[in-house]
Amino acid sequence: MSDADPGDAGALPGADAAARPATQPDPTDPSSPNRATSDTAPDGPVTSAAATSGPATSDPAGGAPTPGPGAEGSASPERAGGRTGNRHLVRVTFGVALAVVLLDQLTKYLAVRYLEGQPPVEVVGQWVRLVFLRNPGAAFSIGTGVTFVFSAIAVAVVVVIVRTSRRLGSLAWAIALGGLLGGAVGNLIDRLFREPGFLQGHVVDFIALPHFAVFNLADSAIVCSAIFMVLLSLRGVEISGRRS
């Protein structure tokens, strides 16, 4: 005769199943404490917590690896170097522009003071002369009847150059854009503040060459910068510094 308790024979089958999770957690239960260590992700095993401190970790859902702190830090110096180089080129652009504007306005001041109302001054015989002239048109006395149009164009050119300077990656392009910007601003100052009125001011010109229009330093900077840009384009040098 068996020593088993007769009451065990009458125990409900569900009682044993109800008691099982307390000692043997169901691995398919999301709330089971052992699921994170025993289950596997659809595309691979779950990465342990210790591995998350490395340069890259795997997404538990099987996605692309996420760069860790080490990988992100290694790219920072390169990005920082690019930003530093661009800031340097932007400073070059505005430095050249400022130098052009200062020289242009200084020579125009001297021309107004010493040349206005005076006969032409020969610098190099008939080849280079100083002749005072107030020009209501564009560079080299072009379009004298639409001064306000060239004023608006000058403002647009300045805005475009300033926005373009953010993409600079070439020192040569920085110098060329600086000369163009300085020339445009130099003549724009005349159109804004000289007589006869706002946006209609006459530009001061004073340099005369044989069989050529009278011009100023701002005009020279614009033309020289434009020629320089054409040469850079012909050589395949882009604003970003790459070669096409």
Succession of helices and strands: HHHEEHEEHHEH
| Rg from alpha-carbon coordinates | 39 Å
Strand order of the largest sheet: 3-4-5
Structural class determined from secondary elements: mainly alpha
Mean pLDDT across the residues is 76
- Low-confidence segments: 1-22, 35-54, 70-78
By oligomeric state, this entry counts as: single chain
Shape: globular
Note the beta-strand portion: 5-15%
Give the termini separation.
Answer: 100 Å
Largest sheet: 3 strands, antiparallel
- Counted by DSSP, the helix tally is 7
Q: Helix coverage percent of residues?
A: 40-55%
Tally of extended strands?
5
Structure description:
The chain has 7 helices and 5 strands; from the N terminus they run αααββαββααβα. With 244 residues, it is mostly helical. The strands form 2 sheets. The protein has a 3-stranded antiparallel sheet. Helix 4 (69-114) crosses helix 6 (171-193), helix 5 packs antiparallel against helix 6 (171-193) and helix 6 packs antiparallel against helix 7. The termini are far apart. 21% of the residues are buried. Mean pLDDT is 76; it is low at 1-22, 35-54 and 70-78.
Compact overview of the structure:
By secondary structure, this protein is mainly alpha-helical. The protein contains 7 helices and 5 strands; from the N terminus they run αααββαββααβα.
Name the descriptors.
244 residues, mainly alpha, three-stranded antiparallel sheet, disordered N terminus
How do the helices and strands line up, and which of them pair or pack?
Layout: H1 6-9, H2 13-19, H3 35-38, E1 56-57, E2 66-67, H4 69-114, E3 121-124, E4 128-135, H5 147-164, H6 171-193, E5 203-208, H7 217-234
Helix pairs in contact: 4-6, 5-6, 6-7
